[in-house]
Amino acid sequence: MNPLQQFVAELLEQEGAVVEPIEPEGLEVLAPAPLQQALRLPELARLGFGAELPADAQRVSLESDWMERLAGLLAERGRRLEWIVAMDNPAPGSPERILQHGLDLLNATYRLQGVEPAWTRYLILRFRYAAVSDEKRDGILELGFNLANGATLDELLAGLVAGAMELEPLAAPPTGVDLPSTWQPQRLQPILERALAQRVGRQLEPFLKGMRRRQERDLKRLHDYHNDLRREALERLAVLPSGELNEKQQLERQRQQLRLAAIAREYEAKVNDLRQKYAVKVTLEWVQTLELIMPVQRFAVLIKRRKRERLLMLDWNPLARRLEQAPCEYSYTWERPREVCDEALHLLSPAAHGPCPQCGRAYCRVCHPEKCPKCGKTTDPGSVLIPLGSQQTGDGTAP
Fold first, then answer.
1. What does the pLDDT look like over 145-160, one tens digit per residue?
2. Cβ proximity of 18 and 30 under 8 Å
3. Residues 262 and 118 occupy one common structural domain
4. What is the torsional sign of CA 185, 190, 195, 196?
């Protein structure tokens, strides 16, 4: 069975239906009355999931209204999960070498203080995004954080979640385990706004590039057409004598001047139509939350910048067998490297520690999130984050 067929079969069986696989890539369903009503099905139905459908089957696909039907049936089930796992957690070999490859600081030095076993709580959020313009693109985006230190999990997520789901979960963490607390919405919301914009932009970049190419092609065609009309009107004006004109010549001049004004108005209107056509509306909807609690190996790293020091904790994950990346404490970008601010030793991406566009002074966007401390110019988040270049809206319940 393909994944969607398997999912639907298991869900219908849980709801009391009798389900039998049929070829090609289909299900025969005997549904009880409540399920018939919820999914708008007859008592005996056939569902198809492949390019070729069984006889008399309804097509079930990600693009069909079946996604809404199944969402209505599930309601809030499956939206949140706490998964606690335990496994062998030996210290990794050559921790200094692991740290050397995993931590990239441009303006500070560091020293490994020690490695010890610990437990952590990962917050992994899944969102559905959709971009609508002259075409539509949608997909699923996963974003994960280590709640102990704010590190993002972009490079670890695939192996981490897949490996954890294969392990038998525990009912509760072992006694005496010290876990980081969950993040409250007021802390999580600004982090999500910064982190998600970049990642949705990265996912949509091929779509946006294609859209820009089509827009530029249409704008060029529009410009060439109206430029030819304008040149023709100017040529007709140019052949008129420069001195005093007779009545017929004056009428011709007025006609061509009115024509030029009409061409300019029409061109502007057509350009505005194209802007509307290619405007992008991006919606983002929270789908699921996974809290993964598990053991890790915690690296204690002493960071030194000038005469100041800061102790940073980074976790090495035994499932992904990787050291997490130090967070940018403003943008939460996945991109390396990191810089350290002078005021509070915040870890930042170069953009989040970059110069003010007005006075040129580099400053920390965590210490001064609203404006430059020297000239007072308002901080532009678009200069720090990777912009979507489009309209973004948020839908769905906050995780």
1. 999 999 999 989 988 9
2. yes
3. no
4. positive
